[in-house]
Specification:
Elements (H helix, E strand, L loop, with lengths): L12 E3 L2 E3 L24 H7 L3 H14 L13 H22 L7 H20 L3 H8 L4 H11 L5 H16 L17 H10 L3 H15 L13 H9 L6 H15 L2 H7 L5 H15 L2 E7 L4 E5 L12 H8 L5 H10 E10 H12 L11 H11 L4 E5 L5 E9 L13 H4 L9 H14 L19 H8 L18 E5 L22 E7 L5 H22 L5 E2 L2 E2 L20 H14 L1 H5 L6 H20 L1
Antiparallel strand pairs: 1-2, 3-9, 4-8, 5-7, 6-7, 10-11
Amino acid sequence: MAIPPRTTTPGVYRQYGQQHPVQRVGPNVTDDYERWYTEATPNNRMVLSIRSGINSEIAWALDRLYRLCANDQFILKTIPGLTDALFEWPEWYATEGYLMAEQYRLFAMPDAEHRKRRHALESIFILRNSATNEPNAYELANHSRTLPLLFNALTNLDPDTDMNAEFVLNAIELLQAISLGVILPDPASNKKDPLPTLLQITGHSSNRSLIISSLTLLAQLLSNIQNTRRLDSNSPALAASVRYLPLFVDRALVEASLNYLYAHLSHPPMVKAFLHHPLMPSTLRVLVSFLLSEQVEETVNLDISAVSRAIPATTVVIPVHDLTKEELETLVSMPEPQRCYEWMKIMFIATPDGELTQVDFWTLYKDAFTPFADRHPVLVASDVIKNVNVVFPQAQAMVLPGPPQRFVVRGVDRRKNTEAAPRFKCLWERSQCSVSPFEAPGELYDHLLQHLESSENPEPPCLWATCPLPSTSKQRLRPHILTHLSSSQPPAKHPSQDDTITVTADGESYPFTDPTKRQPPPLRQTNISYTRPVADPPSAALTALLIIRILFRSSFVATSETAPRVDGEHFGFPGVVEDDEGDDVVEDIGGELEGERRGRRAFVGVRRMMEDVRMKDEALMSWMVEMVYAAYDGLFRS
């Protein structure tokens, strides 16, 4: 695993997540100033300065090397002797120097030892940063002095002391870079073993940087099949990983914990033991919570509305056409039946769905021409009805069965005015009043009262348009007039009533001819809102998913993969598994069945949380679906 280079000046160690600088004096040079001193020759100035034993020359060389060590062009093996020269001071400190540092823990070290300790810190810092480059990591991994140095450092040095914290941190991170082929020694041997120190750091240290580096290194070392024998179900690193896992805000610490958990639980005996761990259910819940916190979703709105049309609920009623004064003067002098024909053409139109009663026809004709009957005779009712077929051949007079019977003329309807009449226009004198429209209903009512008071007849009829009210007293006529006035305000609507009416898109009109036969319109707006993942989960979330998957397979697969039994009473049908009864009881060796039951109960407890996990990758999402279904199935078996 590649580790990022650190640019912190050697001599700056970390404790409790902070940096504590150590004063140093050195020349300030620009980058690449010493370019010609890195030439691949045995007499390289850098190597000669490090081996010179002159403190100023050593400081000069190390100062420039730590500026170059993170550069991809810096290759250790191209400078002969440089790698061996950089090992000298770290080896001294890991085997002897640390003892003197412990003696002077509360006091300043002698100048000579202090300089050597500083050279050791700078040298291992340079080795650590150069190992981020693959050729250098390969060079150090195969060097005979690398592992002895690192194992001595992690065995001899106390990582809890401030004097050793930075050296141990660099040693751990250097071991990370070359951990691919590192085999841990057998604990029964007398060889140096870094594992106890790493476990001590993860379990008891308060230095965040050391904890993260130790967990990362342990995950890499224990991923090697040859090191799995060193796994322990009661490992302090396991307890630390479970303890630090809920700290989602500390990304680096959570990722290190997840990597170790995955390496630990990838070994079957360890995951079976973990199913008995008291914190296993809460750990599973935290892992699912981490998946939910890492998923990035977007809200999608899908319009599935059917085609529809909305029209205003408040419509302007267009009045029927009444004879104007000019039209009436023209028609009165015509001879019958020509006058009847022309009157019908003005007052009616042919409409297939139209329908008027025969009484309405006769009443309209009679009201229009009876006042002039002394000079121009009028037709009788039967002749008027017969003339309808002359003017409108498609119209038909008929009798509709009852009770009561209705005499109608079908195929014609009243003609409508092309323009809507003003709301407060006076229609007295059968719509012949020439006064301009009013602004308010009160003004119109006062005007109508003037018409009423000016009449000399004590019981006049209602002369509003075609109102059929017969003669009545003026006292009763005054409130009747109010029925012809429009309100100044539209009627109040229920709060849930909309301002528009939805109709089907096939040409349905409003107002409806027969509201009881109105087709149910579709909803004007039907939206489906749902969330979907924008991208695949990050690497840390994928590691959490793999850990969940391992726990799932250990909890459920043993039951789902039980082989069908074949004997005298069973035919071994695939998928048919019957529980044993009576004395034939499966022995729970090592508590494995109880562990599986605990695992199934834990998944049942988080099944609703897992239902909220969304992943863009279909294969990963199928894992979640499978685990959710299995959890619901386990609800009845656990």
